[in-house]
Amino acid sequence: MIAETLPFFFFPSSFLSLSVLPTSHVALVILGASTIGALLGAAGSIMLLRREALLGDSLAHCTLVGVVCAFLLTGRKDFDVLFLGALISSALGLIIIKAIQSIPLIKPDAALAVVLAGFFGLGLIGLRTVQVSALGNKAGLDSFIFGKAALMTSSDVSASLVIAIIIFIVIFITRRSLAALCFDSQGLVSLSSPIRWAQVIVALILLSAVSVALPATGIILTCSLLIIPGCIAKFVTRSFNYYVICASCMGALSGAAGTLLSFYFENVSTGASITLAATFFLLLILSLRKCRSFFRPTPRLLTVTQERS
Amino acid sequence: MHLFLRRLSLLGDALSHAVLPGIIAAVVLSGSTNAFYVVCGALVASLLSITAVRLLTNAGLSSEGALGVTFTTFFALGVLGLNIFGSQIDLDPSCILYGSLELAPLETFPLSAQFGAHFEVPRAAFSSLLTLVAVTIVIVSRRRRLMITSFDSEMLKLSGSSTLNRFDSGLFFAVAAAAVVNSFFAIGAVATTGILITPAVIARLFSNSMRGMWIITIISTTGIACCGYLLAVVFDTPVAGAVSGLAFLLALLAVFLSPHGGVLPRLIRGKLLILKIATDHVLANKLDDEKQLTNLNSRNPRSSNGFFMLTWLRISGLMAQDGTLTEPGLRRAQTLVRSHRVWESYLVNELKFAPDHVHEPSDRMEHFLTPDLTEKIADQASLSEKTTLGKKS
Hints:
The structure holds 2 protein chains of 2 kinds.
Chain A lengths: L6 H13 L5 H25 L5 H20 L4 H23 L6 H25 L10 H4 L7 H20 L1 H9 L1 H6 L4 H18 L1 H4 L4 H15 L3 H25 L5 H26 L14
Helix pairs in contact in A: 1-7, 2-7, 2-10, 2-12, 2-13, 3-4, 3-5, 3-10, 4-5, 4-10, 7-10, 12-13, 12-14, 13-14
Chain B lengths: L1 H4 L3 H22 L4 H25 L3 H23 L7 H6 L9 E3 L9 E3 H19 L1 H9 L1 H6 L4 H44 L3 H26 L3 H19 L5 H26 L7 H4 L6 H10 L11 H23 L9 H7 L5 H11 L12
Helix pairs in contact in B: 2-3, 2-4, 2-9, 3-4, 3-9, 6-9, 9-10, 9-11, 10-11, 12-14, 12-15, 15-16, 15-17
């Protein structure tokens, strides 16, 4: 049933996997991880500017329910199916988070914590249901929790490439609105651009990024690749465009490095190794800055100083 | 719950992620899963992570960035440790997720001889009890100070330099960390976050006082824990999932239905308020000039339906069937108009508003001024009845 509604994914995916992608498994997996890292870096950098960094963590935990339900409904572990499931459940989580945040009694981060734990708990129940069910090929679902990039197949990689390219095109087209949303939402309103649409687009970008990232970084550590490349890029540039580009490059680099590391150390989950690679780059940049500050005054960072609407 | 009040809800999540490497290191180094070593390792890890957050913030990262970086990195280190050393110790990644409460009755811990050697208490229960006692002692003995500093961050900063206060907040965090570590083993990392924050959220939605919040938190935490465990046993699901899911569903219910905070009641109250204001306008218009009823829709762009308002007015007895005002309706309309005029004069005379600016604010205020308040304002401004500033349009 779902297969018929996804020709959009299948066609470019199969085309790519037949012609463009490298055949070596290692290169394939590194490409996949880099794509995911790039997408997460870009999405996360925007969220970091909007001071909603931990929203990504909540949404990543929400995806577990969707992944499990998608597997239970279709019995297949194809990336497309699981991606859709993750997207839907994290969209649901986002709606609930915003609903709870609209109550003045509750602080915003409490909403994040509640939804994170709740959805993940429901997902754990689902995971146990899967384990005791009679469905076949259920063993790989656990790898989604901590990340195991080595399990990505060429169709997985090509599907994530397609999604990443689409999202990058969207970011490129809407980059002015995104920048305005981060820095000057009052101005955006006064220009009578619909601010709702900009917020929806940002949300969709984040949701897709989080759902795509599951095979590589896993659920629990996706938010590391959302936050850390953004932090690194803040130290490198002050222009919004370059900031997003730099963040996605750092994300791709971390993804590649982390996956390489996980090939050397056999048992390591790629979620952990990617996170550690990203932190390594962050510490590198920080120490470079410290060295530089001995010689000349350090430039100011990219920050948002206005009130968000 | 104090974590929730201090906008530090995610600190619980962060702590539970960050203590993992401490636990792993402790277990690896000590070669056993003795609870004492584990708790020490967890405390060391939490201290390290707090230091790391502070260092990173000083280096220029934003506060959420530093928090996110630190706890994900620590957790990654912990996962790394699990992957590398996991075969040597009997921990594995799913232990973090699910906790091992189901196995609790199997791990027993003989109490010391003074309680009688034939008592074998499950270790989890024992350590939980200890933690509970510790937490209760700390919170009860410090509650006034905790309360003040949770709500008033200025006071927190002012009193921050004394050593007593540093000890205080350190104690608070240590106790919080101990509670987190304890529930870590019982129900796993993510459910810890859930049960840390969700009962507090539910409590906040239902009560406004500190005492009420405490009671609701305690009741809901124990209730959720017990019912969650029962559900888990009945349906054969992991305890962590059941507890967390149950807490979440209860929180959703609270969010949507709670009388003074919930989403639905607020929507309903908002609609009722709109209705009241719209019907008030209708009444006042009727008094002022005898226009036709068909003009109603043009007056109130917010109202859904002139017919709806008329029906409501008829039902509440303020308007007769043929469209003229009844006695109570007449009185209400007169009160409205008088409040409006009094407020306008007040604005002009006392607050020095320009006369052409006073109609709009009075249009809003007239609904909320009670008759005796109006009289008090009128006395103070010593007005006459027939002021005609700002004619109603």
